[in-house]
Every structure is written in C-alpha cells, then in structure tokens.
Amino acid sequence: MPILHSIIHRIAKASGEQPATLHPAPAEPAVSDSLEDLLAGFNDAYHAKPKAWGHFKLEQDVEETQELRFPRELASYLDGHSDFIAFTRGVAQRIAELLDAHLSISGHLLFVDYQHGDTRYLSLALLHHREGYAIDTEHSVVPSAQLNLTQMSLAARINLSQWRSDSPSRQYLSWTRDRGGKKLAEGFAELLGATEGVDATGETRTLLKAFSDYVEQEDFAEEQSREKTDVLLDYANEQARSGEPMTLEALSELLDEQQPKAFFDHIRNADYGLSPEIPPDKRTLSQFRRFTGRSNGVSISFDSHLLGSSIEYDETQDRLIIKKVPNGLREQLKERQG
C-alpha cells in the first residue's frame, strides 16, 4: 500500500476543566516499514469495527454550510490548492474541539493518504495508548507505552477514487459508530459532512434472506446448499476483512459459474430493494449458519434465521414444526401417499 502522504498530530486533554490542546506535527514523517505496518494494523482493526457507510452531504441537503467544510477542504487539497499539512491541521483542530465536548482523553491523530491497487484512500483515526512493557538493552523490564488499535473512538476512511469518479456510489465513505458514544459519533459525522447512504446491518440481513429464498426456490440438494452457503460467507467475510462492499453481480457469479446471473436475477425479480453494493455486517454474518442433525434415519438441515419463521421448535414437546415443506420433499410425500 504505497503511502502518498501521512502525518500524526497529537491532541492532549488534561484532567479537569482544561480544554483539549492540539500539538500539530511540524512535518510529515518519512515513509518506513513501521509506518506501513501501522497502516496495515489500523486497517485490520478498522474493518472489524461497527461502522456507518455513506457519502458526503449534497449542497441542497444541508442547512449549514459548515457541514460542507471538510469535503470542500479535502477537494481543495486533492486539486493542489492547499498542502496536506495545512489541510490536516485544520481538521485536527476541529476534532480537538469535538473531543473537548464529549471525551476527556488524549491521543494521536493519524492521517494517511495512500494507494491500494488502483484505488486511492484517505484514512484518519484517533489512536489511543495503553501501558505495556518492553525489555531494554540491559535485559530489564521497563514500562513502554503502546498504541491500542482496538480502542478507536474516532476513525474514518474515504474511497477518494470512487468519490471523485464520474458516477460515485452512495457508500464511498465509512466512519466508526461507537455504541457507547452516540453523541460523539453524531458530532464526528457532522464534522465530516457525512450522511448514511445504506444500512449495512439491514442490507446484509435482507441479502441473507434473499439467498435462503433462492436456495429454497431452486430446491438444491443439501450438499449444494451447503456449498453455496460457504461460498457466500467466504466472499462476504473476505470483503469485510478488506473493508470493501459486496457486489450482487460478483456474488451471483461466484454462486453459480454455469448460470452467473441466476442469483442476481432472483434478487431483481423478487424486488428485495437491495443496493447493487452492500457493506457486509460481520455481526449479522456470524449469526448466519445452518442447524444440522441426524438420528434414527432422519437428517435435518436448515439455515438458522428460518427458526421462528418457517420452522418452529416446541421445546416442551421436543419437536420441530416445518411450516413450508420443500418442493422436492412434498412431491415425494404425495407420491408415497398416492
């Protein structure tokens, strides 16, 4: 991931009523293996965080022009009208003021403009520290402050290539949405001038429902159903690890190489209302699995989310109630009774 520009400012917040103070870096650090490793570690930690996905607000949708300040300054930097250091200092000062209103915490504010493949990104994050230990040259244990990438109060990533393209999507921007700091997250989104363009949790849930309907409609054999479920989850989790959205057309091609448009057409024909690109929600994906069991000549397998809708479990009498019998099984039962 070639780093084009980077800088690390410091925000200090003393205890008590003292305001947060910005200590700007005088210059960009030299690109090094450590800096690249930090960027890779940040990306891994960021992709695992609960996030909102969206885009910058449009001029006709804002009441206060202040909400357009960040994207305008970012565009000015990208167009060469301002330098990276000046751009990041202005943003850092506003973040310091935001923290002052919501958190009594210090940290380093990282900005990185980098290239990944053909795509250019800008990432920013408030990095916190934790106390750790190291071994010095005398082989003694000494205290050592370490960056804590798992604690990430504020972070965002902008797909600059997509934003500046001729037909930008509505989800080129993502930012952390800390469940424990709603006001802070809302203030951060306002500072960025961001608005949500897609509900990652809802869209992922709907996609999984569409997939289960598709498997049931096509009446795949159990082994085929399991294989396709594995393909979907492998693709979704890989996209989640890389911080990229799932695309319906790509997923459809992976699910059936012989009929690459089959699943895509199923979604469109049934009108699930899904976006062409869906940010994968890891929590929802982790809950999507199959219940399986075999005993005394009976083999049962079904997707977990069907429990409570198409399938019910009566714990008092220890029985499963199947409300909708698969087509193939229904025909076999009719033939047997006939």
From TrEMBL:
InterPro entries: Nucleoid_associated_NdpA (IPR007358). GO terms for cellular component: bacterial nucleoid. One of its GO terms (molecular function) is double-stranded DNA binding. It is found in: Cytoplasm, Nucleoid. The keyword Ribonucleoprotein does not apply. It comes from the Bacteria. Keywords: Cytoplasm. Belongs to the YejK family. NCBIfam families: PRK00378.1. This is Nucleoid-associated protein YejK.
